[in-house]
Amino acid sequence: MKKKVFFGLIALILVALVVLPLGGACAPKPTGPKTLKIGTISPISGPLGIIGLLWGRGFDMAAEWLNGQGGVKVGGDTYQIQFIHEDGKGSPEASAAAANKLVYQDKVKFVIGEVLNPASEAIYNVTKPAGVLHVLLYTMDPYREDQWGLGPDNPLLVLLMPMITISFKPFFEYLHETYPDVKNLVWGMVNFPFDKMLKEAVDTAQATGFKVVGGESLDWSWTDWYPYATSLLKHKPDAIFIIHGGGPDAVAFEIKAIREQGFKGPIISFGSASPLLIPVIVGAENSNDIICNQAFAGAPEATEMMKKVKATWEAKYPGEDWIDDPLMAWDETWVLAQGIEKAKSIEPEAVLKALEGMSKPGSLQTTFGPGQMGGLKTLGVNRMLVRPFPVTVIKGGEMRMVKWVTPSLP
């Protein structure tokens, strides 16, 4: 009997020695992070190429930061972001070709781009039927009913940066409070179809107590700004507001021409250009009473995340001058990552739905402070980011963000 028990124990041990390794071999092995490829289409070449360069670097820096934090958490999976950058050249043809490559060759689920609406629409015509989420890099006039853009008729389209239009009211209020002697305003703008944007700016200025006595348009291709400046000043304004001045350096050249024609009053820049270019091009002696709605990461009032982006640039690109445009690309990446984590999915429709639901103040963290999605009443969909704008004032070449304002977009 004892022998039977002994041999039985031996048999059990042998079975265990065989089965345990097999069981271990069949157990699922821990998997490493997955890769989430995101395509971008921007004007890397051509007259707007500086935008593509700066934004591309901003996207890459944001990806490195998020990946260094452990990546994007989606349920039980972790994703490392990999950006694939394509040159849209600001044209519909090049942007459509880039979108086809990203969607069908690179198999991305998200495409960010472009700068000009015709190019963006060409991208959307590729991404929509493929079920890919199109994140607008920028949009020119979101309120025109006759222009393609955000709205209930265009699913899988979202804008993760606020439009300058929502900053009109708080900036005109700041001008009214700070410069009580200013009565008459003149507007300047590139001659693109921004008519509804212009109307909103003029209506807002007049509702704030100003009289808009005239305005002048300029062409994207202009390089001689002095006739334009002369035309603005013939209206004898107390202050000038530039709604959209063209490329990143165009606003600075416009202001330079205006100042050199002898105008001393306040100038508001509603454009998307970094304020850092203004004192460099205009000169410190002419950089006075200039008000911008763009951020300056070198100011004491900058948020911690703005300072982090600038420090990341300086470490990654030593010796290259910092310009604030990468802040917006970093911000779009961070907001999109929050939408993905909220959705617990990388499927475009689920991510868009999650973003639309993040409409309460503080639902999103942004580089510039607490934000949320808005636009349901105004645009028919909650698909535009709303976040704080800095009131950046330049005096004597010195820049300070004197105030933060958070516009509303119902």
Characteristic terms for this protein:
410 residues, alpha/beta, Rossmann fold, seven-stranded mixed β-sheet, 13 helices, 16 strands, 21% strand
Which SSEs are present, and which pair or pack?
Elements: H1 2-26, E1 34-42, H2 49-68, E2 72-74, E3 77-87, H3 92-105, E4 110-113, H4 117-130, E5 133-136, E6 157-159, H5 168-178, E7 184-190, H6 195-207, E8 211-218, H7 226-233, E9 239-244, H8 250-260, E10 267-269, H9 277-282, E11 290-292, H10 304-316, H11 326-343, H12 348-357, E12 364-366, E13 369-374, H13 376-379, E14 384-386, E15 389-395, E16 398-405
Parallel strand pairs: 1-3, 1-4, 4-5, 5-6, 7-8, 7-9, 9-10, 10-11
Antiparallel strand pairs: 2-3, 11-15, 12-13, 13-14, 15-16
Characterization of this structure:
This protein is 41% helix and 21% strand. The longest helix has 25 residues. By secondary structure, the chain is an alpha/beta fold. Helix 5 runs parallel beside helix 6. The strands form 3 sheets. Strands 8-7-9-10-11-15-16 form a 7-stranded mixed beta sheet, with helices on both faces. Strands 2-3-1-4-5-6 form a 6-stranded mixed beta sheet, sandwiched between helices. It has a 3-stranded antiparallel beta sheet with strand order 12-13-14. The N terminus is likely disordered.
The total number of structural domains is 2
- CATH-defined topology of the largest domain: Rossmann fold
Q: Which class of the largest domain in CATH terms?
A: Alpha Beta
Anisotropy-based shape:
globular
